[in-house]
Amino acid sequence: MSWQQCVALQQPQYEDLAELSRALGELSQLPPLVTSWEVLALKQALAEAQEGKRFLLQGGDCAESFADCTSPIISNRLKVLLQMSLVLVHGLKQPVLRVGRFAGQYAKPRSADTETHDGVTLPSFRGDVVNGPDFTAAARRPDPQRLIRGHAHSALTMNFVRALVDGGFADLHHPEYWDLAWVEHSPLAAEYRRMVAGIGDSLRFMETLAGPIAGFTRVDFFTSHEALLLHYEQALTRQVPRHRGWFNLSTHFPWIGMRTAALDGAHVEYFRGIRNPIAVKVGPSVTPELLLPLIDALNPEDEPGRLTLIHRMGHASIAEKLPPLLDAVRRAGRRVLWVADPMHGNTENTSIGYKTRRFDNIRSELDQAFDIHAAAGTHLGGVHLELTGEDVTECMGGARDLSEADLQRAYKSMVDPRLNYEQSLELAMLIVRKSGGLT
């Protein structure tokens, strides 16, 4: 609870504190969403990624909505992550650690506490776990009961994902089950189908020699979200039998966003006290003088798998801003996992008012990230992406060269633009090509 003595940014202003207290009391008695042994298993896998033995694929919605907690949307989101991981495993020739940005990504930071339309000022929309998107006083009122609904929708999502994975949805013997409609018309369809056929042939050959390989019928899957609402996270932070310390059991892998990463802030103080593997977003304003003390505060024992740094610089800034950070961390001998987020530094607004990202800029930042790490003698161990399994038109470019005019066709995001299923898979193939795995 020491974080409550620090400045907590990006928190909703609830009108009725007694109502908030009752909701948090109820939340604290509800079952956790994940288990401590899952959390520790992820930490071990992240330690292996630090050593270059795994590659982290972290992806999902910018902000989940309660309305999207449906079986088609959840299964399509899982499909595209499985498809991407299939491409990466095949091309990189190493295990892929799959972490979804879902089952809790219901809150979003905002640049201003309020917004004004036609002379009316109301609280900003901060995600479904806080308030509603409609521009009315009733919808925009921060409602503590939404915290309970957020837990319920997270639990429903987790339950369905676990059921799919345990039921063989991720069976490598049948990757054709993961097909989405794009494979019928995408320029990448033939390449993807060749890859699927090659994996099937390899599995059949291995099982002819060694018999059925049960491990290929399921995969490990973990969840993550930005741990923004500290009262919610605190209510789901628990001690467990036979393990020391405290675990955030709302998710396996919480992260601190750029807006809340101040060394003396409440979020850093809260994260210091939990045993989960954690991540921090690192933007172009971060210097070595800011980053090294933050690493020391969050991972004072230099614990393997504990700390991931997700750099998000923008394609125009990464060549200048990233190398000094890599050099400082390497010289200091700190143990971290470096991950690239090529999405958030490349957001722009179009002439007709859409927030978008250009696929070429996303690709450029990712390409540069691999080159910069190679030149620095460090290892880029993963990617962090905002994506969806739906046929949206939110990011321009890609294999079918979506234009500004195309954005109007299927722009569905409530906050930030996401890669659609086709662009997501294309990016996975580009990662493999960059690593020399595809020709």
User: Major sheet, described briefly?
Assistant: 8 strands, parallel, barrel
User: What's the CATH H-level homologous superfamily?
Assistant: Aldolase class I
Which structural class do the helices and strands define? alpha/beta
Query: Radius of gyration over alpha carbons?
Result: 21 Å
Catalytic activity: D-erythrose 4-phosphate + phosphoenolpyruvate + H2O = 7-phospho-2-dehydro-3-deoxy-D-arabino-heptonate + phosphate
Keywords: Transferase
Family: Belongs to the class-II DAHP synthase family.
Protein name: Phospho-2-dehydro-3-deoxyheptonate aldolase
Description of the molecule:
By secondary structure, the chain is an alpha/beta fold. It has a single domain (2-172, 220-434), classed as TIM Barrel. It is built from twelve helices and 14 strands. An eight-stranded parallel barrel has the order 1-2-5-8-9-10-11-14, surrounded by five helices. A two-stranded antiparallel ribbon has the order 3-4. Helix 3 (71-92) packs parallel to helix 12 (421-434). It is globular, with a radius of gyration of 21 Å. It catalyses: D-erythrose 4-phosphate + phosphoenolpyruvate + H2O = 7-phospho-2-dehydro-3-deoxy-D-arabino-heptonate + phosphate. Belongs to the class-II DAHP synthase family. Its EC number is 2.5.1.54.
